[in-house]
Amino acid sequence: MILVTGSGLLGSEVVKTLGQDHGEVTGTCHSKPKAGAVPLDLTDREGTIGTIISLKPDIIVHTAAMTNVDYCEDHRKEAMAANADGTKNIVDAAKKTNSKVIYVSTDFVFDGMKGMYREDDPVDPVSYYAYSKLIGEYYVKDLPSYIIARTSVIYGNARQNYVSWVKDSLENGQKIRVVTDQYNSPTLSIDCAEAISALIKHDVNGVYHVAGGERVSRYEFARKIASFYGLDDSLIEPVVTEALNQKAKRPMDSSLDVSKIGAYHKMLNITDGLKKMNDLRGVK
């Protein structure tokens, strides 16, 4: 059995994809009850370990996280409890059940000074969110069998995300300000889920960059979204990071090299990702 923590944009996609590819999959939920999902508060150490021991999963795919970068900067204890301590609780339970853990991490563990980071490049987080996620990585590495899957700017059909924000804003004739100097590797949620499925199928271990196959600035990404949906890109105002006065520092170029995952799954570029997302819209 595979246990998937989190029921957000990626978690819900992972549950669906792994259920199709690998059989029995159980999801979890925290604040909002979800049909078929097991209630799980990762900050409750005793409860988390007890639940995992009772379920005895072969694999735990850990997607649950506190991901609001600015919120984490202002609420550091909460971020550490969710992203680091919560991961440690999972790891300690996995040691008791001999479960493999697949931990979804982030491109933000890098300082953003060079971009196109490979899996073995030195990490150096510049925000507390990224620091808390990196501590989670260190806990996971203490297991005999694990995968750390770093991803970047996840988008998809479920829930609010960058693509839906840009699309909805432009459709409503609303101007948006988008940075030109922050670069990432935007990742379609189902593509990330399918890559994780491929890693499970091939029973690999270690660190993998599971992100979109294209490096772009946030501004370029927004323009590609506008172009794909035939929307007015003159509503997209280019700005530099300093103009936004964001609470937490961002890495300027945290794009990821996805050559390693390419041996098992080819990650989609933005145009193909948007096309697949659009094709799947409304498909259950």
Polypeptide structure, described:
The protein has 284 residues and is α/β, with parallel strands linked by helices. It has a single domain, classed as Rossmann fold (3-Layer(aba) Sandwich), CATH 3.40.50. It contains 9 helices and 13 strands. The chain has a 7-stranded parallel beta sheet, with helices on both faces. Strands 7-10 form a two-stranded parallel sheet. A two-stranded parallel sheet has the order 8-13. Strand 5 (100-106), helix 5 (128-140) and strand 6 form a beta-alpha-beta unit. Helix 2 (45-55) packs parallel to helix 4 (76-97), helix 4 (76-97) runs parallel beside helix 5 and helix 8 crosses helix 9 (270-280). The longest helix is centred in the first third of the chain and has 22 residues, at 76-97. 47% of the residues are buried.
